[in-house]
Design a protein that fits this description.
By secondary structure, the protein is an alpha/beta fold. It is 39% helix and 16% strand. Strand 21, helix 21 (599-610) and strand 22 form a beta-alpha-beta unit. The protein is elongated, with a radius of gyration of 28 Å.
Length: 657
């Protein structure tokens, strides 16, 4: 491969920049100017420089917690990076990311992931986004040898190979998974051997030879741009420092470190450039001085920069809300239909309205609950994408696509399976906007059926809404009627934040009125399903019909019950709940999820604080039992609040037992 002279000089200067930057970071960390922890890539500079030299400015990378070199090689500013490490407002992430998450989205860095292997499932999503948008961008995913033991490694490579996505998986094999040598965490010598399992090329290169790295990546990029799919490149390299600055490094010898330092990639390229006549000793010294001065300026900039304002600690948890339009009445004409049909209408309308919307999930062509079946035929396999049974890959792909301009709607087959993909939901989707200081938006929806009622047993029947309500950065929607499901799903798809959209299985085939035509329902607006004056019932999802039925029964005894359906948990409309409680002076919450730590507990706490003086009776809560969900229909029904229990509890609140 004939590498242009200017690119050779660029790679040399970039390796120098990375080396001097990290050497100075170590000094500043030990001086106490950099908080937290620091992970250095000193000795591995050839991997970052050789790889990024093969990319265009509009290509993407996904980085790791050892990512200083990646960000610099992709074009990041040393000054803003140093300010980020100093925890200053002028840093790339405004002090929200630090060493573990240093990211400049403006140069195509989609995120430095602190979780081992997390980026491997995001990269296919960015690559899929490029395909769907009709560009020839490629995505490089950096990761270490230890990450190749994660399940996300298998799921990400398998999906990328299956869909022939333009991804280059670059393994920086520095021979240690933290403190464990490769021979003790893998039975193979070359991680690239694993590429054969996914029918993609696997290439092993000397990771300290920047020319070899560049050639391998250049060839893989060409293959990816031509539509031939991903490549796995393994660079054998070495980190001079421990896993972190301060690591006692008892797991390796000084002799081993010295032997690898003798293979320093920078002198190797310098000797080549001197031999070619592209540099002389004076030019070498001058370039070194220039880079040193650049790093000095970066340190001065960081030290002089202001700290973030503690009053803005929660800034960028969510993307800004668009200007709110006046609420529009729903269309007056309605038809009697099911939630399944309502959801299908919402998805079809949004797929038709916005080319950035696409669906992905298991068995969408022949789904268990049938929501997407007809959509597959109408919109085709590019917009309604069947995936492997790989929950991490499904959600990770959705996150990567959302970061790069798409609006994915991912379906997880059962709510219980959300526990299989907690990392891309909780650590990526929910946190990337915040960790990057507001540089990115993550507009995705995760649709998931849940709840009991079908004798599906303990692993297919859970109600986990409260678990995700506890995760900052996620919006959570939990509707109970066909009309609400359609209007809220359309709004969720248009939202610029990650939304988990819970759909109760028992409600899919329940009848209800559906407005005819186009409409949306804003998130964060509760609905009073039945007005009343004596007791407020706040009910969720499948408990709403039970609460309404109980209210009807109580009306025959001259007891007026107001039923409030929050519809969305994040944002939560506490004003409607508080207004109802101030009127009725009594509150009962009813939910299907477990009692301990449930939705009702949070609402009860807020009401007790904000409306305590209005209460004429203690707040009551009805919820699921604190035990796994049984298979037996008789036992399953005994798990959850019945209409009779709701009636009895309301009477108790009124002293009419």
């Amino acid at each position: 491969m004939n590498i242009p002279d200017d690119k050779l000089l660029w790679m040399y200067r970039k390796m120098l920049q990375i080396r001097h930057f990290e050497e100075r970071v170590a000094v500043e960390f030990e001086a106490g100017n950099i908080p937290g922890m620091v992970h250095l890539s000193t000795g591995q500079e050839a991997m970052a420089a050789g790889t990024c030299a093969a990319l265009r400015p509009d290509d993407y990378i996904v980085s790791t917690y050892r990512g200083h070199g990646h960000n610099l090689a992709k074009g990041g500013s040393p000054a803003r990076m140093m300010a980020e490490l100093f925890a200053r407002e002028t840093g790339d992430c405004h002090g929200r990311g630090g060493c573990l998450h240093i990211t400049d989205f403006g140069v195509g860095n989609l995120g430095s992931m602190g979780i081992v292997g997390a980026g491997i499932v995001l990269a296919p999503g960015a690559a899929l986004s490029a395909v769907l948008r009709g560009t020839d961008q490629v995505t490089v995913c950096f990761f270490g040898d230890g990450a190749s033991n994660q399940g996300m490694f298998h799921e990400g490579l398998n999906l990328a190979a299956l869909w022939k996505l333009p991804v280059i998986f670059v393994c920086e094999n520095n021979l240690y998974g933290e403190a464990t040598p490769q021979a003790e965490h893998q039975p193979i010598k070359d991680i690239a051997e694993r590429a054969a399992s996914y029918a993609m090329p696997g290439v092993v290169v000397d990771g300290n030879d920047v020319l070899a790295v560049h050639q391998a990546v250049w060839e893989a990029v060409g293959r990816a741009r031509a539509g031939h799919g991903p490549t796995l490149i393994e660079g054998k390299t070495y980190r001079w420092h421990g896993h972190y600055v301060g690591d006692p490094e008892t797991y390796r010898t000084r002799e081993e470190v010295a032997a690898w330092k003798a293979k320093d990639p920078i002198p190797r390229l310098r000797a080549y450039l001197l031999a070619r006549g592209l540099l002389d000793e004076a030019a070498v010294a001058r370039m070194d001085e220039e880079v040193q001065a650049e790093i000095e300026e970066a340190v001065a900039f960081a030290a002089a920069s202001p700290y973030p304002d503690p009053a803005e600690v929660c800034r960028d948890t969510f993307a800004p809300e668009p200007p709110s339009a006046p609420p529009q009445p729903l269309p007056s004409e309605t038809v009697l239909t099911t939630a399944q049909v309502a959801l299908r209408e919402a998805l079809a309308e949004e797929l038709s309205r916005d080319p950035r919307v696409f669906l992905l999930g298991e068995d969408l062509r022949q789904a268990i609950f049938g929501v997407c079946n007809e959509l597959y035929e109408e919109f085709g396999p590019e917009r309604v994408r069947n995936t492997p049974i790989s929950e991490n890959a499904i959600i990770g792909c959705a996150v990567g696509a959302a970061l790069t301009g798409m609006r994915p709607v991912a379906e997880i087959m059962f709510e219980d399976f959300l526990l299989c993909c907690m990392d891309p939901i909780v650590n990526s989707a929910a946190k990337l906007r915040y960790m990057t200081g507001g540089q990115v938006t993550v507009p995705l929806v995760i649709r998931v059926p849940g709840g009991a009622g079908l004798s599906a047993g303990a692993q297919h029947s859970q109600s986990l809404e409260a678990l995700f309500w506890h995760i900052p950065g996620l919006k959570v929607v939990a509707p109970s009627t066909p009309a609400d499901m359609k209007g809220l799903l359309k709004t969720a798809i248009r939202d610029d934040n990650p939304v988990i959209f819970f759909e109760h299985k028992a409600l899919y085939f329940e009848g209800g009125e559906l407005p005819v035509g186009e409409y949306t329902i804003p998130l964060g607006v509760a609905d009073v399903k039945r007005p009343g004056t004596d007791v407020t019932i706040v009910a969720f999802m499948a408990m709403v019909p039970r609460a309404l039925s109980a209210a009807e029964t109580l009306a025959a005894e001259d007891i007026s019950v107001e039923v409030v359906d929050p519809r969305t948990l994040v944002p939560l409309d506490m004003e409607t709940i508080l207004a109802s409680v101030r009127k009725t002076k009594r509150l009962l919450t009813v939910e299907e999820g477990a009692l301990t730590g449930g939705l009702g507990a949070e609402i009860a706490a807020r009401v007790a604080k904000e409306a305590f003086d209005y209460l004429d009776a203690p707040i009551e809560r009805l919820a699921g039992r604190d035990c796994p969900i049984p298979f037996s229909p008789l036992l399953e029904e005994a798990m959850y609040p019945s209409e009779e229990q709701i009636v009895a509890t309301v009477k108790q609140l009124l002293g009419r037992e």
